[in-house]
Amino acid sequence: MSSSKALHIGLIGCGNVVVYGHRPALTSLPQLQLIALADITPQRRKLGADWFGLRDDQLYADYRDLLAIEDLDAVVVAVPQQFRPAIVLDALAAGLHVLSEKPIANTPALARQLVDAAKAAGRVLAMVHNYHFLPEYRLLKQLLDAGEIGDVRVAMLHFLGVIDYPGAAEFQSDWRHSLAAGGGVLMDMIHAVYLAEWLVGAPAQQVMAFVDAPEYAARQPVIEDLALLQIAFSRAYASIHMGWGEGVGGVDISGADGQLRMRYKQHQSGGFNQAIELYSVDSDWNRHDHAIPNLPAHEANIARSFCELWADFAAAIHENREPIAPAAAGWRALEIVLGAYESAVTGRVVSLPLVESSPLYSRGAAGIGELEAWAESKTVAAGLFGLRARM
Ligand SMILES: NC(=O)c1ccc[n+]([C@@H]2O[C@H](COP(=O)([O-])OP(=O)(O)OC[C@H]3O[C@@H](n4cnc5c(N)ncnc54)[C@H](O)[C@@H]3O)[C@@H](O)[C@H]2O)c1
């Protein structure tokens, strides 16, 4: 494929994330040409046709018909994770490069299958880990890489002000509250988890966590809305404070030679609001302010982050290199989330990667019921993962 030819792209799943994320990239980047769209819901196909100026013969109810198009180069798969891995596998088998929404799958066993399939097919399988490209996280990473505070010792990511957005009304708008669909605030906001590994610059080795449902305790099924994680790396630690609600947002990083701190407008959390303050403190306690390269409206920052992610995906294909967020990063992030669930239920620290004999490895959150639960677990008391019925 010549690097001057625009990539022919197919879009599978035209839901909410397309509205504010993939649509701006697919309508503005010259290196991309959207030539087909598949969605099982007629209303979403119609919406997509209007947004992208597609003809009826470019719209598909069954994604397999889209995969059969001859001159397609790549697909983006933006359906909920419950349905996504099978589609990604079919796309790789059809010889296509794939950009997959997060999280990569519901089980590590499937995540591994996806990573192996991409490798065997010699195709790029990239994750939509778009927070890498938000201006505040880009700047944090640049400062860390430039040695602003020396080696990272402890990275604290506060996401207690996450907004609980429903999915597209025309489909299953409540899927984020369904365990089977892969819902829950931590699983949905896996952004914080891959960011922790990226900022620390190493794979996680251990995780321990509390996972609870204080806000939604009365709803059925019960789904986690609060998760507090401690993650150990070879030479550093991270903590993630995750919750749907209106709590603290921002990042604080302690390094060998100083600190980095970042906060959001209206004290909200990452992804939902604009970061307005980022400063370092050196080892003599002097403060240094760093200008965040924000666009005026936060929606424009989000749109730009998706454009940059897509540009990286296209460059990875043309240059035959790994994207910034390869499937392996999605697999590791999924294991951290599942390890956190396991820790919250058993009361023990969980080693990573998960062992293949773990019920969570093959069954994901659906395997939690097979764990030996700790009698005092808050997660069990909350009835999360269907555990109350079993106790
Ligand atoms: N990267 C991000 O910042 C971000 C933001 C939101 C959502 N997401 C992820 O994107 C995915 C979709 O989320 P959403 O909020 O857009 O969901 P949504 O419910 O709004 O949209 C899902 C769409 O997929 C379609 N669909 C479902 N099954 C299909 C199938 N088999 N074939 C074709 N189309 C199918 C539905 O009709 C719907 O239009 C999820 O995995 C979610 O985690 C990522």
Characterise the protein shown here.
This protein is α/β, with parallel strands linked by helices and 391 residues long. It has a domain at 7-130 and 303-325: Rossmann fold (3-Layer(aba) Sandwich). Helix content is 34%, strand content 22%. The protein contains 13 helices and 15 strands. It has helices at residues 16-28, 42-52, 63-67, 84-93, 108-121, 135-145, 185-188, 191-200, 298-319, 327-346, 359-363, 378-381, 387-390; strands at residues 7-12, 32-38, 59-60, 74-77, 97-100, 125-127, 152-162, 206-212, 226-232, 237-244, 249-255, 258-264, 275-282, 287-289, 350-351. It has a nine-stranded mixed beta sheet with strand order 14-13-12-11-7-10-9-8-15. A six-stranded parallel beta sheet has the order 3-2-1-4-5-6, with helices on both faces. Strand 1 (7-12), helix 1 and strand 2 form a beta-alpha-beta unit. The longest helix is centred in the C-terminal third of the chain and has 22 residues, at 298-319. The protein is globular and about 60 Å long. It starts with 6 loop residues before the first strand and ends with a helix. Bound molecules: nicotinamide-adenine-dinucleotide (NAD).
**Termini separation (Å)?**
58 Å
The CATH first-level class of the domain at 7-130 and 303-325 comes to Alpha Beta
Query: What Rg do the Cα atoms give?
Result: 21 Å
CATH architect. name of the domain at 7-130 and 303-325: 3-Layer(aba) Sandwich
CATH H-level superfamily of the domain at 7-130 and 303-325: NAD(P)-binding Rossmann-like Domain
So how many helices?
13
Distinct ligands: nicotinamide-adenine-dinucleotide
